[in-house]
Amino acid sequence: MAKFKTKFDSLVQLKQLKIDEIQNNLSKLNKALQEEENILNILENEFSSLTLPKEGNFALINQFKIIQQAKIREINQKKSQINFIKSQIENTNNQLKEANLEYEKMKYLQSEEIKKYLKKIKENEAKNMDEIALMLFKG
Question: How far is CA 123 from the centre of its chain?
Fold first, then answer.
């Protein structure tokens, strides 16, 4: 039996494409998050390995403080980037939930349309069988 086409077929395909697009975006965001967290770990390790000079003049100590402050700024910027990516991931997860819901609605409507079509075919077959039986009975 040939596949029955419904008016919802193209909508189901579009909804599936939307889900695929969102999932790809989510994968990219998760990869970016992992990369940024790895960089943050490196920055934090670099910061913790900084040691205050034990000897030297004031300029050397001042230079250490400047390097330390720069590293702190870099760490804070990285944390901000990570928080931004996390919020994007949360938004994308919400989009994915909505897209899945829309997809399921279209799939349901598509299946209902197919059920109606099959019911109509069965009714027509039953009607035809009744007509054949009536003709055979009269004949």
Answer: 43
- Residue 110 contacts residue 40 (beta carbons within 8 Å): no
pTM above 0.90, yes or no: no
pLDDT at 3: 67
From residue 53, how far is each of 48, 56, 59, 75, 88 by CA, in Å?
14, 7, 11, 22, 42
pLDDT digit string (tens) for 97-131? 999 999 999 999 999 998 998 899 898 888 888 88
pLDDT > 90? residue 39: yes
According to the CATH classification, is domain 9-51+66-138 in 1.20.81? Answer: no
* Domain segments of the chain as ranges: 9-51+66-138
Long-range contacts: 113-122, Cβ < 8 Å, 24+? Answer: 113/6, 113/7, 113/8, 114/4, 114/6, 117/4, 117/6, 118/4
